[in-house]
Design goal:
heterodimer; A: alpha/beta; eight-stranded parallel barrel; two-stranded antiparallel sheet; 16 helices; globular; B: alpha+beta; two-stranded antiparallel ribbon; 11 helices
Amino acid sequence: MKFFFPDSHDYVDPTFDFETEKNNEHRVIQRDDKYAHELFSKPVYDGILVSKAIVDGVSGVKGRYSVAQRQRFFREGIYRFFRLPKTYLTMGDCGAFSYAKEHEPIYTVDEVNEFYSNAGFTYGISLDHIIFDFETAKKKVEGDQLEECLRRQEITLEKAEEFLIKNKGLNFGAYGVAHGWNPESYADSVIKLQKMGYKRIAIGGMIPLKSPEILKVLKCVNDIRKPDTQFHLLGINRLEHIAEFANYGVTSFDSTSPLMKGLKDDKKNYHTSTEDYTAIGVPQVDANNNMRKLVASGAINQNEAFKLEKACLESLIGFDSGKVAKEDVLSILTEYEKLYNPKASRVELMDKVLTDKPWKKCPCDICTDIGIHVVLKRAAARNRRRGFHNLYIAYEKLQLELKKINQVK
Amino acid sequence: MNTISLPALKIEQGPGRALFSFAIKGKDIQSIASISRVKRHEDELVGYQRPEVSNHINEIKKYLESENPMIPNALVIAFNSTVKFVPSEHNKNFGTLVIPIVEDEENKPGLIVDGQQRAAAMREADIDAFQMPVSAFITDDSQEQREQFILVNSTKPLPKGLIYELLPYTETKLASSLQKRRFPARILDELNHRKNSPFYQLIQTATNPAGVVKDNSILKLIEASLNEGALYFYRDAATGTGDIDAMIDVLCNYWSAVSKTFPEAWNKKPKESRLMHGAGMTALGHLMDTIFERYYVDMGQDTVTEENFQSDLERIKPYCKWTSGFWDFGRVEDLADDVKPKVKFDRQAENVKWNELQNVSKDLQKLTNYILARYREEVWN
């Protein structure tokens, strides 16, 4: 079971100075930065997934890449651009999510083929159009809604057919995409894709579904699966169901979830193999949006805020090296918290993470390298590294699950 | 009460309008003046200063801590009437300014009307004896302070182009945004003034208004190439500069080749030729990087000659419509009947008249993508 990490410019400046909070002033973004596969001494994913929409942008709106970066991406190809060893797999997709509101996909099959083959991907996923509806016992998909689902399914299948025909002679493996609005319609898509000749099928549109629903779909498609058909789950990360997934013919999946939790989740943003913790908020007075508004309107005194911010950082660093007592850290943290978030108190959550010191027990390169900074919620240099740490944990969990499956066999 | 006495010069600018000029140790500013932050007290507006900007302060701090800093423009401080000027016996315009020292932040005798970021940088910086010039006036009227604050802060900034043209002729430490531009600006300056450069006197700048290409278009393509393209190979990552002669060679070889490939479009006003326009410069700039890497990286050549560039440029020439006709952006590969999709979802052919391309990112991208796609098709495959 292979785990692909969907990239969206996720790298960090390795020279970031956690004491002065500065980047190197001559640093060239991306070229001088480091990806997760460069920071860790062992893999945290088996491959990366890059979508055309991220690289190209969507109908006039710029993608995450600058024009110059995008051109270099094509010149160098995906492996050189990402400085990715050949032992990793790469998968391209279209980024159907970004044009889901359009009537039709915004790319042509030729453009998609050109993208995959110029960039040198291992696998490419056919051009698709997402179906958002899903039928439940209470909610039938019918009428106009059903029409639309059928229309999108048909587009996806037609594009898949064209894609496979044109794939002959190109240097990447083709995935067809199955979309549906209930287990039967997914199975229908898979039957047709298998008939076209696809041996690799990506199952899409399941991100919003609950795990039992996903399993129902998988059970249904597995019943009609040819023995040599392999499934890829797009955007799914339910590690607790890995064994079931494997039984249903799933050989790979992708997800940004561990990283995104580190960046955005309010509660469970620092993961360990046993427990999820809440990172300690030390917002930057002059970079955090909420703080900036409070300061600009005169609601809080900037000097006082600066002083508290600095004091929080210093006492946290002092705590990490054993020079400051936990109670003192907590008291300054709560004083600062009163300023930027007077309503809610996270003192218990902060107490918990400071008591357990999970970063001290984590053997990953990020925790070893930056210590307590990994649990500070404060700008990308720390938050993205915490996301990377979560990737490490997720990948370890996956390997453990896979080991269990193999033992049973 | 404790006071601080400083030698000062009294400057009378009008009846009842007296200014005091003096110098104070940077570290002492906070003991005589505070900042009046803008906020509302029960619906009434008090104060006028915006929040401190850390990035800006750090820039000034770095400069203050650099080898030999100088800040010629004075802080402006408004004192209340507890501050007194005592004229000397010989000349009533020289004397001593006597300023009471007040610990309480709210009741300091002075408020900083201009220069709060500089004052904050001096507070943070690792300097001890740096003397800061100050212009002060005495008033108890908050309205007057506010007026002066608006007056000093509503001046028109210099045009960017002039700053960039001046940049290559500076050496001192500058704000990082300008520092980053200094080296690209120097390359531009050389391109515009070396006699054997294809751009000799063609780039429009403050002192060369007759030039046909906008300085900004060239600056952008140099920066893109320094970060992502051909010039990167000659860049020194530690200093942000590099082997400028090698870079100029690449640029001259390429753009000479461009001028020879498209003689009808070269050295015309952007209105008459989209080649000399932001769109053409951007797209061909990226093509330079692509062609360069083909010879330099893929084929391992030491240099890429004008002839190399020209032979590749010739391959995309038929697709270029710099001065007339239509760009065929909709081109879709003609497919054999048996592989044509049953339903045609492919977009309709999209043709754009040569002079409809605008200097906006959407058009720049469209043209760049088109030219590079054609190049890959013609040359790579």
